[in-house]
Amino acid sequence: MTPFLRKLLGMNWLLFASVIAIALAGILFIHGASYLRPEEHYWQQQAKWVGIGLCIFIAVTLVDYRWVRWIAVPMYVLSIVLVALTYTPMGVKAGGATCWLRLPGIGVFQPSQMALVSGVLVMGLFLAVAKSWHPILKLACTGIIVGPTMVLILKQPDFGMTVVWLPVILTMLWLGGLPKRWMLAMLLAGLTMLPLVINFGLKPYQRDRIVTFMDPDVDPQKSSYAVNQSLIAIGSAGLGGKGFKAQGTQLEMNLIAPTVAHTDYIFTTIAEQHGFIGGVAVIGAFGVMLVACLLTALRSNEPFGLLIVGGFTAQIFFHVYQNVGMTIALMPITGLPLPLISYGGTFVLMIMFALGLVNSVWVHREQEIVEPRGA
Questions:
Q1: Does the pLDDT value for residue 214 go beyond 70?
Q2: Mean pLDDT of the chain
Q3: pLDDT tens digits for range 79-127
Q4: Whole-angstrom distance, CA of residue 156 vs CA of residue 160
């Protein structure tokens, strides 16, 4: 058996199956969420990105993930530069934040997604060699690595993409050997700083989202409108839902804004059309994906693989929890998409790249660790 075929047959098939199932279902769900705007061709575009993403997933799976250390730092530096360029006339404003970038010949994409994925790789490189360092030095270097990027993203302002860094960093620090008492101290310090951040670090509309989360009835015609309509749509769907592209739904009556029904509020559309069964099926599919990632982390035979798998698993988990949670008033409203389901090319390609690395850790878990010359 050739090495290529051995790697192909030895991939994590549970992970691969969940990726295929979720991505294909996402195309269907986007079609159901955007059928009122057929001229936009959202589901066709998503299908194209999923096809490219699957090619990336397979290609990255077959390459030994240890070689990614050579591109981790350049990729991270490039992503920081691209995030900084959103502050120039090349930046594109959408949803109140200038977090998109338009480049000639490439189009519009979101560099903060690339920054997070490459940031996980750089953090993995650092923590793999700094496991025995003193916690203060380890935390200081972590702040130097991720701090400037998080500030740039927060100033766009993209609060959702900034927040997702936190569980990723905490997970990787824990896997990197940071003592539990330091983890607890960080969490307590974060909770202490939370009122200051809410009152002085957020835009007025972002503070309104926090207030809405605490009390959905505080302003039902303005700041609470979106979440209340989402609750009505999900709550009225019943066990089996109202049907694919059904009439008389919150979506069909434009009570769920058609501009976000296929992106931020895709889970609302899924639950309204396919009911409790559809919602549970989607969450269950993500559960299978996360279990596959955790099994890969457990089977990793060296720190770098463990760290990057842990970071990507935390990223996907938080995206799912936040996106679903905000539609049912369990979390504040942010613009975090649902992985492989929400419409968006940048996120699809970056998640496919990340999951390909997770699969590569599984495929190469039993190979002898040979450090690249010069590493």
A1: no
A2: 89
A3: 999 999 999 888 888 767 788 898 877 778 899 999 999 999 999 999 9
A4: 11
Q: What are phi and psi of 283, to 5 degrees?
A: -65, -40
d(CA 262, CA 34): 6
The C-alpha atoms of residue 29 and residue 342 are separated, in whole angstroms, by 9
pLDDT for position 232: 92
Q: Is the pTM of this model over 0.85?
A: yes
CB 273 within 8 A of CB 245: yes
Distance of alpha carbon 67 from alpha carbon 367, whole angstroms = 14
Per-residue model confidence (pLDDT) at position 219? 62
**Cβ(19)–Cβ(57) below 8 Å:** yes
The answer to whether 293 and 120 are in contact (CB under 8 A) is no
> Could you tell me the maximum CA-CA distance found in the chain, to the nearest angstrom?
65
pLDDT in tens, 146-159: 999 999 998 888 88
Q: Read out DSSP for 189-202?
A: HHHHHHHHIIIIIS
φ, ψ for residue 300, nearest 5 deg? -65, 140
Q: How many residues does the chain have?
A: 375
SS3 of 48-80: the string is HHHHHHHHHHHHHHHCCHHHHHHHHHHHHHHHH
Reduce the DSSP state of residue 107 to 3 states and report it: strand
Residue 372 has pLDDT above 60, yes or no: no
Q: Is the pLDDT score of 1 beyond 90?
A: no
Residue type, 338: L
In the sheet with 107-109, reading across from the earlier edge strand, the strands are 91-94, 97-103, 107-109
Q: Which residues contact 360 (CB under 8 A, 6 or more apart)?
A: 60, 61, 62, 63, 64, 65
Query: Do the Cβ atoms of 45 and 52 come closer than 8 Å?
Result: no
Kindly tell me the burial class for residue 90, based on how many C-beta atoms sit within 10 Å of its own C-beta (0-12, 13-18, 19 or more).
middle
Backbone phi and psi for residue 321, each to the nearest 5 degrees, phi listed first: -60, -45
